[in-house]
Amino acid sequence: MRTVLNILNFVLGGFLTTLSWLLATVLSVVFIVTLPLTRSCWEITRLSLVPFGNEAVHVDELYPDRKSAVLNSGGTLLNVLWFILFGWWLCVMHVLTGIAQCITLIGIPLGIANFKIAAIALWPVGRRVVPVEVAQAAREANARRRFN
């Protein structure tokens, strides 16, 4: 089912959003100042291409033992820079694609996936794209660690 949804997403607008993310990735490499944004940009490009079966998870959830206040504050500064340069137009692109997909009955799940990516597009630094099963296992491990 995930494969069918990913193919439908690609055909019904996902191609354009993925191209937008690729453009942002190339621009983040070209502008030397934004080079630290390239990893996050590439991660979300993958999510835009194959949104079903994958999930964007913050690195603090994946690797709780590596939490660092310095890295988190640096990530926040990079997210602000990202929002100004790339985030707002990528978010708009996903929202418009999601609205167009939701017009048809078959496109509603695709539109919902685009709305989720639109929220991630605003603040992507520090997120990694992992399979849904890995994200769920990381959340369960963090819950066990917190409440035991």
Q: How far apart lie the N and C ends?
A: 36 Å
Overall radius of gyration: 16 Å
Protein structure class: mainly alpha
The largest beta-sheet arranges its strands as: 1-2
3D shape: globular
Write structural notes for this entry.
By secondary structure, the protein is mostly helical. The chain has 6 helices and 2 strands; from the N terminus they run ααβαααβα. Strands 1-2 form a two-stranded antiparallel sheet. Helix 1 packs antiparallel against helix 2 (38-49), helix 1 (2-30) packs across helix 4 (69-102) and helix 4 packs antiparallel against helix 5. It is globular.
Question: What's a concise summary of this model?
Answer:
The protein has helices at 2-30, 38-49, 59-62, 69-102, 108-122, 132-147, and strands spanning 54-58, 127-131. The protein is mainly alpha-helical and 148 residues long. Strands 1-2 form a two-stranded antiparallel ribbon.
